[in-house]
Amino acid sequence: MNIQTVEQNNQKIAIVRGEKLLIADVQSALDLIATVRYETGGDRIVLHQEAVHPDFFELKTRLAGEVLQKFINYGAKLTIVGDFSLYDSKSLRDFIYESNQGKDIFFVNREEEAIARLAHA
């Protein structure tokens, strides 16, 4: 795992990259939050879609809800960067829309937008 830290609007934002899945289950999400806090002192995380298990985007697995609840519970903010048009699920589109209206979890197309969202969340 490679963590690059940027600072914008007085917020530390961790851009996390890796060769393997970084979120495959609830425990790996908790490990990610802990690692980012330890290495950067921050709690705002940018993660690319490829680092998240595909089951996350199948809402019937409940993985997204369980993982995102951990981010909320631990006061961490997450933006996932990717092309979400690949999914034709109306419930997933609605989930993404609702998440993007909040202040903790975002789904965006570009890394720059992810940083901007987290800097002002």
Give a structural overview.
With 121 residues, the chain is of the alpha/beta class. It has one domain: Protein-Tyrosine Phosphatase, Chain A (Alpha-Beta Complex), CATH 3.90.190. Helices cover 39% and strands 23% of the residues. The chain contains four helices and five strands. It has helices spanning 26-40, 63-73, 90-101, 111-119; strands at residues 2-8, 11-17, 44-48, 77-81, 105-108. Strands 1-2-3-4-5 form a five-stranded mixed sheet, sandwiched between helices. α2 (63-73) links the parallel β3 and β4. α1 (26-40) runs parallel beside α2. It is globular. The two termini are 25 Å apart. 30% of the residues are buried.
**Cα-to-Cα separation, first versus last residue:** 25 Å
CATH fold group: Protein-Tyrosine Phosphatase, Chain A
Report the helical percentage.
Answer: 25-40%
Average residue pLDDT:
95
**Strand elements, count:** 5
**Main β-sheet, spatial strand arrangement:** 1-2-3-4-5
CATH architecture: Alpha-Beta Complex
Structural class: alpha/beta
Q: What is the name of the CATH class?
A: Alpha Beta
Low-confidence stretches: none
Order of helices and strands: EEHEHEHEH
Count of individual helical segments: 4
**Tally of domains:** 1
General form:
globular
Largest sheet: 5 strands, mixed
Radius of gyration: 13 Å
Question: What portion of the residues fall into strands of 2 or more residues?
Answer: 15-25%
